[in-house]
Amino acid sequence: MSTTATMGEMANSAVEFYPKGTRSGSRGGRADGGQAGGDFQVTVTELRELMELRGADALQKIQDSYGDTEGLCQRLLSSPTDGLSGDPADLEQRCQRFGKNFIPPKKPKTFLELVWEALQDVTLIILEAAAIISLGLSFYQPPDKDSEVCGHVSGGEDESEGDTGWIEGAAILLSVVCVVLVTAFNDWSKEKQFRGLQSRIEQEQKFTVVRKGNVIQIPVADMVVGDLAQVKYGDLLPTDGILVQGNDLKLDESSLTGESDHVRKSVDKDPMLLSGTHVMEGSGRMLVTAVGVNSQTGIIFTLLGAGDLEEDVKEKKGKQPDGAVENNQNKAKKQDGGVAMEMQPLKSAEGGEVEDREKKKTNIPKKEKSVLQGKLTKLAVQIGKAGLVMSAITVIILYFVKFFIIGVTVLVVAVPEGLPLAVTISLAYSVKKMMKDNNLVRHLDACETMGNATAICSDKTGTLTTNRMTVVQSYIDVEGGLAKQVGNKTECGLLGFVLDLHQDYTPVREQIPEERLYKVYTFNSVRKSMSTVIKLPDGSFRLYSKGASEIMLKKCSYIQDAHGEARTFRPRDRDEMVKQVIEPMACEGLRTICIAYRDLPSNPEPEWDNEAEIVADLTCITVVGIEDPVRPEVPEAIRKCQRAGITVRMVT
């Protein structure tokens, strides 16, 4: 999930989180929507209970407790149209009262834990055992009769060998220590770099809110309860909220409920918007009611963190009666309320122990290992086993001590102590070199894996291109124009084009704000267009529509000429326009957008649900070509990949 922080195990073991002063709130505050005073007439507990409801139950709760959404806005000292004032003192007070939009990340592993993980490698365990046995045997002197039995095997040994025999074992131990320290330090430094990178990414994540009547973008972590947030197609909601105004809003709530069907949201039926859900269609505004660990996403991860802590407690207590465990689970369910129901199916009494054991198995961290290192380790173990078997055969000839000496010798020869160190240092060196190219590698084995890559599939918008849309060509009947205004999205590119034509769209927005739009057919991948209906002063309606040119032109029956007069747009004219205007634009890599309109009578009022009849017989105004410039470094990067034998594919 694209949230304000890494979704990991929560440090807080409590099922509910209350910032200071939130268990009981002031009931005698102002209800005039003012920003001063900070006497909020609603508590964190009430908001949490409200966000656990859905549909008609949520609407009934809002109506019974607050009257309507505006009543809730007044209790939160916010405005359903202008949002918060943005006063720093007010924002700080909201953070203290309702919490910050931040979920604490999982506690990082200590250096000693990383050292212990590095010691779990099979190769290192074999070397450790060999070193200890070698050190022990270096101080052991067999009796003289051993020499007589062994004959030539021991007869040629140097007498001074016993004095220096400990060096071999010490050298093996030293190499093991070097490997462990290098591996642990690499893991520790990578973890530190990743946390710093994630912190920077969190600050760069922004969301659109309304403050003091102005639409601005702020970091997701700075959002507070009472903010008026604008949601649109493609957004991942960072907080919980209640819909204040919406246009055909549909959300994907599969991350919370598991249901893949899109859920329609509306002010009068189901206004509850939950964090971690994706906006699949439409747009709107929501009043932020829960942030951070108090949001639905935060509650889920708090419960996961509490579950891990419960496992640790069970391990320590050992023999806790089943009845006590069941009572604890029932208490947790009661505290959760609706959340526990959302997270069904819950564990049964009999299946719980099995699931706990499986969880414990999956929670054991496994040290990643490269393919080469894994094969070498397997080979070394097999050779070591063979050596032990051979030495076991010779036990009838040699004494018990000689049996161990030969086994250790075979092990040491089979597993060179420098091999793990060489592999670790070479991979660490590769990681450092790639860091200079701004390529941060977290798992060392990824270096070897990426060396085998033969194809790269890349997204287009924002990856290969700058995601800064620019209208560079336009067609308005016979006469055209050229614009250089750069925007950051398709609509911003169109607005920049309007400004370049020396026209100001601000008065139009002030005259017809978003709240006064009569009907909106939002953009989706099926329509490939967006249409908006406004009511004219004489009571009639006007439909404005824009979308993919190949879709829109089929719905156009008229076209405006250079003088603003509409003339008939026949199929033959459409085919000619496609060949002479749209195809040349497309060949230059431009995104072609057609803009059209239609006037509709007020009596009888059109049937707005019949979209096919409404968005038809349009009058084409213009076709514009929008360019998304390619990033300057992309062509050379693709050429390098091709020279290396890697195929680059664009997926868009």
From TrEMBL:
Domain annotation Cation-transporting P-type ATPase N-terminal: ranges: 63-139
A Gene Ontology biological process term: regulation of cytosolic calcium ion concentration
EC number: 7.2.2.10
Top-rank lineage group of the source organism: Eukaryota
SUPFAM superfamilies: Calcium ATPase, transduction domain A, Calcium ATPase, transmembrane domain M, Metal cation-transporting ATPase, ATP-binding domain N
Keyword Ion transport: yes
Topology term for the membrane: Multi-pass membrane protein
GO MF terms held by the record: ATP binding; ATP hydrolysis activity; metal ion binding; P-type calcium transporter activity; PDZ domain binding
Top EC class for this record: translocase
Keywords: ATP-binding, Calcium, Calcium transport, Ion transport, Magnesium, Membrane, Metal-binding, Nucleotide-binding, Translocase, Transmembrane, Transmembrane helix, Transport
Biased composition annotated in UniProt, kind: Basic and acidic residues: 354-364
Compartment(s) of residence: Endomembrane system
A GO CC annotation given for this chain: plasma membrane
Gly residues bias: start-end ranges: 26-37
Chain spans, region Disordered: 17-38, 312-364
Transmembrane segments: 379-400, 406-429
Keyword ATP-binding attributed: yes
SMART domains: Cation_ATPase_N
Protein's recorded name: P-type Ca(2+) transporter
